[in-house]
Each structure stands twice: as C-alpha cells, then as structure tokens.
C-alpha cells in the first residue's frame, strides 16, 4: 500500500480497537493507538536536510522502496514518515508499505540475525529484484540497543522508553544519514544516482 493508505489503515485500526499482525493482544492494540499519535506528530515534524534533499533528487533510475512493518512496532513508526519523505523527493522512487505477518515468505528472505525484525526496507529495481536492504534500525539506534543488551542482558521497558526519547531528539537524522550512505554506495553498482 502507499503511505496514505497505510495512514488510513492505522486510523481505522484505532477506531475499531484493532491492530495488524498475528498477535492481536490488548498490548498490541494499545501500541497501535500510541503509534497513530506518533505517526501524526512525526508527519508534521520530520524534515529532510537540504543536502540530503539534493542527494535524493539525483536518483535517476526508477526503483521501489518497500518498507515491511506492523502497526504496533515502535521502531517502524519512527521510520515510516522519514522514509516516506525521502522517497517523495525523487520522482523515480515509489514508496510502498507491506505488513510483515501478511507477507511471511517475503519477510523470511530478509531476516536480521535470524529474526523477523522490522522495519525492514527493501530497495528494488524496475524488475522488482531486491538490490539492497536496510533495517530494522539506523546504525546509531542499533548501537544503542547492542550496548544496552551487553550491559543489562536484555531490552526492558526502561530502555524502550529511552529509545523513543532518543528517536525524538534524533528527528530522523540517523535514518537519513544511513540511507544517503546506502544509496551512494549502490550508485556506482546500480547506476541509480548520476550526480551527488
């Protein structure tokens, strides 16, 4: 689905007290409701720096960016608006969103350390062949997770709250940085960007 369809889906889920995915527990429903608020806020506050705007304007080869998510995922909601805004910069990028649990076979091809971690971004050429992936978090957010796990052995609710605060302060900058680097590294291999 496109971004507008995804936002409409989340709105309807909240209205009918539902969620996406196989786990339809009250916890996931509550997270979907919280993420609906986050999505609205991020849609208004996320901006792409001008240097990155110029970079994404230079994507000249048609491609699709497919982001695999679920409505309850806190990392996904922080990512969706940022990637949408980056993709919208280039007329050669089509941005689509797919749900992990409805696309199990696809998701199983793009595991992260053996897990079905989301969000997961697939970069596809015109023939819908995947030429790169990204996710489930920016390199900086991933490092925060790894450091916390190393010190405390697991991710707990305190860390999850702190990570959301980190996302708020970061404002999507780490995601933008990752994708600029990612698309630059693919440029020479794929002929995607003609000028930086």
- Number of DSSP strands? 4
- Strand order, biggest sheet? 2-1-3-4
The CATH topology is Glutaredoxin
Beta-strand portion reads 5-15%
Number of structural domains = 1
Shape: globular
Give structural notes.
- By secondary structure, the protein is of the alpha+beta class.
- It has a single domain, classed as Glutaredoxin (3-Layer(aba) Sandwich), CATH 3.40.30.10.
- It has helices at residues 3-15, 26-45, 50-57, 74-89, 104-108, 139-152, 157-170, 173-190, and strands spanning 63-69, 93-99, 120-124, 130-134.
- The protein has a four-stranded mixed β-sheet, covered by helices on one side.
- Helix 4 links the parallel strand 1 and strand 2.
- Helix 1 packs across helix 2 and helix 6 packs antiparallel against helix 7.
- The longest helix is centred in the first third of the chain and has 20 residues, at 26-45.
- It is globular and about 45 Å long.
- The model is unreliable at 191-196 (pLDDT under 50).
Entry keywords:
alpha+beta; disordered C terminus; Glutaredoxin; four-stranded mixed sheet; 196 residues
SSE blueprint and pairings:
Blueprint: H1 3-15, H2 26-45, H3 50-57, E1 63-69, H4 74-89, E2 93-99, H5 104-108, E3 120-124, E4 130-134, H6 139-152, H7 157-170, H8 173-190
Parallel strand pairs: 1-2
Antiparallel strand pairs: 1-3, 3-4
Helix pairs in contact: 1-2, 2-4, 6-7
Short description:
The chain is α+β, with helices and mostly antiparallel strands and 196 residues long.
């Amino acid at each position: 689905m496109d971004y507008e369809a995804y936002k409409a889906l989340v709105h309807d889920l909240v209205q009918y007290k539902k969620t996406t995915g196989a786990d339809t527990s009250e916890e996931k429903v509550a997270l979907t409701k919280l993420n609906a608020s986050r999505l609205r806020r991020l849609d208004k506050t996320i901006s792409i720096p001008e240097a990155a705007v110029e970079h994404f304007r230079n994507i000249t080869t048609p491609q699709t960016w497919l982001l695999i998510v679920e409505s309850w995922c806190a990392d996904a909601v922080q990512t969706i608006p940022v990637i949408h805004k980056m993709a919208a910069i280039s007329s050669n990028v089509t941005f689509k969103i797919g749900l992990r649990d409805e696309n199990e076979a696809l998701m199983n091809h793009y595991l992260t350390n053996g897990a079905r971690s989301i969000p997961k971004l697939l970069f596809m050429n015109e023939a819908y062949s995947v030429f790169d992936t990204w996710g489930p978090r920016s390199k900086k957010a991933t490092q925060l997770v790894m450091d916390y796990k190393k010190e405390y052995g697991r991710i707990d609710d305190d860390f999850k709250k702190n990570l959301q605060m980190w996302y708020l302060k970061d404002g999507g900058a780490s995601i933008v940085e990752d994708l600029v680097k990612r698309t630059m590294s693919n440029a020479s291999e794929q002929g995607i960007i003609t000028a930086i």
